[in-house]
Design brief:
mainly alpha; three-stranded antiparallel sheet; two-stranded parallel ribbon; 18 helices; binds glutamic acid; tRNA binding; aa_tRNA-synth_I_cd-bd_sf; cytoplasm; nucleotide-binding; zinc ion binding
Length: 483
């Protein structure tokens, strides 16, 4: 029987969740679901100094918003917890001691001063001074209260290799590996130790994480070997770049999931976009539901080359999601943004939503796009001049007059109703309907460009407001004549 796949997402609560972290979690989720396996959340908070207040809560919020539903985690017990590293100190201590017994690690009593002197203040490699202290002596010194760390006992002259599911064969000579610290003097593990112990005890079969761990993995494998544990499979993921040379990074505040949501991106569109940063489904599809991604996600579609985070592309995809919604769905997500843009009580929110659904790629664009609705007043009459359509002030005056008389008696205040009335009136007046509509749009909005044509503007404004504006504009045009 083949083993049940278990993957994990292991964020450190050291800041917000950037797009790169999210992608790592997403791939671990997709792979687990695709394989009918389990997806586990583990919080890696052993670096207390870098732990940021509130960052853990943000992990839960982000995973929930992104739809990455984990089977086990701090709030979902699966029997191999705790799922928060700071609550596992006893476990690491026990296993560090066991590793010492097995000859895979040793007590080191070197002081900070000694270590600093090794490197002349520069980065140094530990000289392994304590490596050969007899175990009984080391234990006695530790028991007597001497301060110690536990270091990995890296074997000499061995090549440690593994096959990564994305990068292929990776080999590192153990001569290039330092006897790094596994357990710090405060009893807390380093990442180097905790990731191994946890992945083993949590039964992780596939470790999916960023490529920055690719070359440290041989070192971790030596720990698995020293314990006599089975190594997991590894899938390392190439970095996501901000541009040709710089990685996205949470330290520099790049590309935070929640910021994008606040800007009006839909979580599912962000997730969909992020999935494609480094993975190409065989179908070549771009817009995909989570279920489609799960069905198609296989490691051979994951690329070794890094991809550039392209916000414009994500905007486009988000726009596709908005267009695909039902009117009701769109109204529900757009309404807060519409209310932010205009004094909503004056308008039919539904009409504004209808107008915006095909015109905003991101919900956050809406307020600016509809601001013209509230800002109507004196405007530059030069806007009526349109050479190609052969509109000048004279034509505009006539056109606005024609619109007023066509619309005043109109009760069917819909795009179709208005279009029919204007077309008929233009014909009667011997004008092109395009000319009338152009002038009417300027007269209704006082804006050089608007998110929709004359009919749409009239519908959004409603009849009463439209008639008021047309009258005001006619006055402006006639005033010009008198001046
Ligand atoms: N806590 C590590 C990080 O945030 C996780 C690395 C891993 O997945 O093993 O980068």
């Amino acid at each position: 029987m083949s083993q049940t796949v278990r993957t994990r997402f292991a964020p450190s609560p050291t800041g917000f969740m950037h797009i790169g972290n999210l992608r790592t979690g997403l791939y671990a989720y997709l792979f687990a679901r695709h394989s009918g396996g389990k997806f586990i959340l583990r919080i890696e908070d052993t670096d207390r100094e870098r732990t940021v207040e509130g960052a853990e809560e943000m992990v839960y919020r982000t995973l929930a918003a992104a739809g990455l539903d984990y089977d086990e985690g701090p709030d979902r017990d699966g029997g191999v917890g705790p799922y928060i590293q700071s609550k596992r100190a006893d476990i690491y201590k026990k296993y560090a001691e066991e590793l010492v017994e097995r000859g895979g690690a040793y007590y080191c009593f070197c002081t900070k001063e000694r270590l600093e002197s090794l490197g002349d203040g520069k980065v140094h490699t530990y000289d392994r001074k304590c490596r050969d202290i007899p175990l009984a002596e080391a234990k006695a010194r530790a028991a007597a209260g001497e301060k110690f760390v536990i270091r990995q006992k890296v074997p000499f002259g061995v090549v440690s290799s593994y096959t990564d599911m994305v990068y292929g064969d990776i080999s590192v000579s153990t001569d290039d590996i330092e006897d790094g610290i596994l357990l710090k003097s405060d009893g807390m593990p380093t990442y180097n130790f905790a990731n191994v112990v946890d992945d083993h005890l949590m039964g992780i079969t596939h470790v999916i994480r960023g490529a920055e761990y690719l070359s440290s993995t041989p070192k971790y494998n030596l720990i698995y070997d020293a314990f006599g544990w089975e190594r997991p499979n590894y899938m390392h993921l190439p970095a996501i770049m901000k541009d040709a040379t710089r990685k996205l990074s949470k330290r520099y505040g790049d590309a935070n999931f929640e910021d994008f949501v606040a800007k009006g991106f839909l979580p599912q569109a962000i997730v969909n976009y992020v999935a494609l940063l480094g993975w190409c489904p065989k179908s070549g599809a771009e817009k995909m539901t989570m279920d489609e991604m799960i069905a198609e996600f296989t490691p051979d579609g994951v690329s070794v080359s890094s991809s550039i985070f392209d916000e414009a592309k994500m905007r486009w995809l988000n726009g596709e999601y908005l267009k695909a919604m039902t009117e009701e769905e769109f109204l529900a997500v757009a309404e807060p943004y519409i209310r932010r843009g205009v004094r909503a009580e004056k308008y039919d929110i539904r009409e504004i939503a209808r107008l915006m659904q095909t015109r905003a790629d991101v919900l956050g664009d809406i307020p600016e796009k509809i601001a013209f609705l509230d800002s109507f007043g004196e405007y530059d009459l030069g806007m009526y001049e349109h050479k190609k359509m052969k509109v000048d002030l004279e034509v505009a005056k006539k056109a606005v007059k024609v619109s007023i008389s066509a619309l005043e008696p109109l009760s069917d205040w819909t795009e179709e109703g208005i279009r029919a009335a204007i077309t008929a009136a233009a014909e009667q007046a011997g004008m092109k309907s395009g000319q009338v509509m152009f002038a009417m749009r300027v007269a209704l909005t006082g804006q050089p460009s608007t998110p929709g044509g004359a009919m749409e503007m009239a519908v959004v404004l409603g009849k009463e407001e439209s008639m008021k504006r047309l009258a005001f504009s006619e006055g402006l045009l006639l005033g010009e004549e008198r001046a």
